Every structure is written in C-alpha cells, then in structure tokens.
C-alpha cells in the first residue's frame, strides 16, 4: 500500500512539474496577442468590486460557463471537489448531507453566496450544498482566505459565490436539455433569455430525479428529487439607473438512513432579492439591495419528525467611489436571522430572532507597481456582542507577468441557534463567544498569454473554537492551527484546455488530549487534473481527483482510506444548435468513503460505526438544444 501511495504522489508531482514546461513550450510558438480573457477573468467576490484575478491580491479560482457546460456535474459538490483548498465530505450521493471544508475550516466557517445573497441554515450555520442544482448557475468563484472584513460572520476559510445567468443582447434565446442514466436518473432543464429596450431577462427551470444508491453496505437505494426555478430580471434607464430582481427556489425530497431505518427529508432552498443602483456622479455609484434567504427541512423518521425553517433578511447599502486609480467601497448592512413560525419538532427555542448591524469600508490603492487593499468591518450582533475584523493585503508587480502578494486578515464564526438556544436541557450555551481567527498568507502568480500559475502558502490560527464538553454542552475551549500550500495552473493551448490544482494542508488540533491530531474528516493532500480537447464537432475530456486518508474523529482513531477517481466526458455538436453530451463518473468504479455514521447497540449501548458509501460507476447521456 505504501508503495502505491508513494507512486501516486510521485506521478502527481511529476504531472504538475511537467505541465508548466509543456505549456511554455507550446506557448513559445504561438501568437498570444489574442490571449483568452478567461485565464485572467474579472471577479467580484474577492474585493466587492470587479478586479482581474491577478489584481485581487487573493487566492481565487473561477469556474466559468464553459467549464460547467463541459463537466455537466450532477451536483455542485462534484464541481467543487478537489479545487484548490476545497475538501468535500458526503454521507452518500445524490442529495445526501454534504460538508464543504475550505482551507481546513468547517462547513459553518465559510460563506456561500448566490448572486451576492448569503444562503445558510441559522440552526446549523452551514449551507445545504447538496440541494443546489448546478444547471441553475453560470459560473462560480472560490475565494480562499479570511473575508470577515467584507462579509462579516463565518468567512473564516473563505467565500464561494455562485452566479446565475442574465439575459444577453438580442432576440430570445431558448435552451432545452433532456437526459438520464444510471440508477434510473432523469434530468430536464429549460431556459429562455434575452434583452430588449434596456430590459434583460432570464427564466429557467430544472428537474432532477433518481432512485439513487445505497448509502451503507447492504442498505437499500436512497432516492432524491429536486425541482428548481429561477427568474432574473433587470432594467437600465436612460440616466444609467438600474433596477432588478432575482428569485431562485429549489424544492424536493431526499431519502437517507436514520439508525438503520428508512427516513426522508422534504427541503426548500430559496433566495430572493430586489436592488436599485444609480451613478450619483461620474465617480460615485450607489446600490441598495433587499434580500431574503430561506432554508427549510422537514424530516420524517421512524422515531421522530421535525420541521426546521430559518430565514435571513438583509438590507445593504453599498457605495463605490473611484478616485483616479484608487477605489473606495463603503456601506452599511442590517440582517436578521430567525426561525420559522412553525417548528413542528415540538421544540421551543429560548430566542427565535437575532439581528446584526454592520458598517464596512475597503480602500484599494494603486501605486503601481505596489498595490494595497485595506478593509475594516464592525459587527454588532444581538446574540454574542461586537466583533471588529480587518485585513491588509500588499501586492507588488515584479514585472508585467508576475505579481507577489502578502496579506493578513481576521475573521470570526458566529455561534448558531442550535449552539446558543437548542432547547434540550444542557445541550446549548447562551454564553458562547464567537470563534475568532487570524491568517497570514504569501502568494505569487504568473499570468501569461494563454496560461497561468498561482502559488500560495498560509497559516491560520483559530481561537475559541466551539466544541462539546464531557456533558455534550457546547463551550469555547478548542484551538486549532491550520497550515497549507496551494498550487493552481491553467492553460488554453490550441484546442486543449488544461487545469491542475494541488493542495497540501496540516489542519492541527491544539486542544487537550487531541493536540497534534488532524482535525476530523479533513484530507491533508489533494490533487485535481482536468484535461479537455476540442476535435471539430467533438469534444473529449476527463478529470482525475485523488485525496489521501482522513480521520472520522478528533482522536484520529477511525481512519478513512484515501481515494482516486476518474471522470470522463464527451460532447458532439451534430447539428446547428443541437448537441449530445455523455459523462462517465467514477469510471474505474472506486469506493469513496469520506465520512462514517454509527448505530447503537440497544443491549451494550456501544456505538457500531459504518461507512457512508458514495455511488460507484455511473453513466449519463443528455440531448441539448440552444446556444
């Protein structure tokens, strides 16, 4: 086994070392005057304002529309798995509970945004990644590192933002896709987009339905269905004022095991927003956004039933001021987290509402070749008091192609409603403080005509980590230190599209008997390679994702093996506006286990662990009409 692991690491290292040389050899013979913009894309998540990737002074990965269309994943987690700094654990495939670790921080210590609107559960603090249909989104931005000074609570490991499409200029453009495959899976989607007279619109719907697979050895198949709808509308007036709205809703059902017995969740994930933006002067733009995010889960199991419904309503006023080459962003925000009116679990939380008031500012100063980004935010939360977060990033252009960067930032994770107010006696703690963190990072990016590389190293210290004491009551006792390094590469050479991501991480506990142990369920090494080739009307591609072992528990006594999976894909544009796409996921039919559950022996009261199994080999075929 050790020999095989070492061989895999050697192959990974060789692949990443050889890629830049191969790309450079090709690039030297090409005209790069029309270099593809997608290798240095404009991103907005890292700095609250449009910046090219090499200008953000942050570690950022962009998954654009072309990537989403080529890979056509069945879940958002499949798209994100193995990206730089990203680790995914799941309790089965197709709508089963998933957790996303960003730079080793927990699933409730990073932020999910959909077109700028935060989506999470106020009771658990985490986003339900498994209930989002990837066909509803056009692109994704992964920003790694603390962003508490821009986004407030929970942006400890970073921020992931999913973007929905908007209508393009011209006549209405329809898109329709129909497909299915393994496990009696069916997928349908349709959309209509266009623009006329200053009005842009995009309307879409999708349906995903599968019998699923067993989530544990010897278990029954666990199905999943998801129906999603999206409306996005905006209008620009002659005075350059703009108003718009967004509504996205996913609703469905997923089956799972509860202590060895069949159970199911009915779920709803929803975001809605209206906004107005106006150029006050030639250098000052002002934007007001009102939004609501809704998370609902209705669980039916043999021994219990529950309904947890949470809502977050937010009002934000943001102003952007251009001062020559410099830029200032400042704003205020008011948000209210609350539980739904009908919690049918029979539980009564001590408090069902909390507000958060914030003021924030960011300065982006360009003294080429030196650039500086300075941000500061003050949060006043009704439940746990005040938090001040800040960050400072420096960038230096070594030449036209290379930028070095250094940054320091702080962030915090807010205690959840469950941690503060869960009504079972002794199972919550209203005196909890927020977790706090500080992060140093050094980075270097090379940006060329048709390829790039980005290298980053960082260290994060987390204090006041919330953990359960001996009486299973949450308390502020833990500490952690997370060190890591990431290497990302991308290239477009003739008809080839290449991407690689290598992550090394040491997420170490600094608490009591677990000091020196790896934080639970985190892999420490990860590699992802994506290769695609255009061949006239055909396209071929594949992804290889491999990760080393992890531990299911804080004591590091329950080891879960590493894995390597290969996903293959092909496309055929057989007529104008018509195409076929085929994917073969986990082509080598490898077993993937990233989490364990436990049953309890009613006689001995001992825990009996079992592995959560992900799907094996799966094939899917779809027919598409539209651009």
TrEMBL record:
Segment forming the signal sequence: 1-27
Gene3D superfamilies: TonB-dependent receptor, beta-barrel domain, TonB-dependent receptor, plug domain
Keyword match Transmembrane: yes
Compartment list: Cell outer membrane
Main location: membrane
Domain of life: Bacteria
Keywords: Cell outer membrane, Ion transport, Membrane, Receptor, Signal, TonB box, Transmembrane, Transmembrane beta strand, Transport
Record-level GO BP terms: cobalamin transport; monoatomic ion transport
Domain TonB-dependent receptor plug: 54-159
One GO CC term, this protein: cell outer membrane
UniProt domain TonB-dependent receptor-like beta-barrel: residue ranges: 180-586
Mode of membrane association: Multi-pass membrane protein
The family this protein is said to belong to: Belongs to the TonB-dependent receptor family.
Protein name: TonB-dependent receptor
Protein's organism: Vreelandella rituensis
Lineage: Bacteria, Pseudomonadati, Pseudomonadota, Gammaproteobacteria, Oceanospirillales
